[in-house]
Amino acid sequence: MSDQAVDIDKPYEDEPYELGPVGLLGAAVVDLMIGGREVYSVFVRTLYFTVRGRREKGAIATQLFEIGNRSLFFLSITMGFLGMILSYEAGIQTRRVLPDYQMLGAALLQLFVRDLAPSLGALLLATRVGAGIAAEIGSMVVTEQIDALRMCAADPVDFLIVPRFVASVVMTSALIIFAGTVAYITGGLTAYIAFEVPLQTFFNTSLVDTGDVIVGMTKCVAYGAAIPIVSGYCGLTTFGGSEGVGWATTRAVVNASLAVIILNFFISGAGYLVFPGL
Description:
Order of helices and strands: HHHHHHHHH
Strand content: under 5%
Distance between the termini: 78 Å
Number of helices: 9
């Protein structure tokens, strides 16, 4: 009887328990909620240490250079080509409906200011800046440098994330404004060459008002704050060796891009509620 009992129970011990689709979805929701709570905790601690934390000389200036100067060329070139593509495609669609290009530049500028320049620029920065932050902090975790910081009574959030947070908020706004201007200029040149739209007609700011500028700048600040927070959290939760660093980098890019999209949804919705005439 004992051998028979063992034989009956053995398959249940050897075979892993498989979750169904509902179980997998529930596990994913639970993981998302736990991760969101931990990211929120990092965000609160970052705000606290931004006001009350220590100030290491030159840390913020170094991050301003790393995030801003080293991203300028990449962001400007990419946004320049995106401006040409959007202007060309918008011109083709306008010609199919109503061959009148007088408001092409004004409509494109409103889209750039309100949504396209902040969102596209932030997604590009999430790939470069977010991956760099996660890889750097993750490497410090696996080499036990973070443990050494804690032994020296230095909080990793204060020492590592706060300088990147401040620099990202400042430089993300500056980079997006500059890269958006580049995209609009290249779009104007494309419209002039492809559709013979005069430059003075294309560079029309009649549709842009204060509400568009406020929504666009709000997105710049929100994206600039979200990228280092999410990427820093992914770096701090790294485990394992070099494989873990690579996985943390991938998580940082994916989660930072997802944060940008989610923030875009909520800020755009709030913007249309606050400025209903747009």
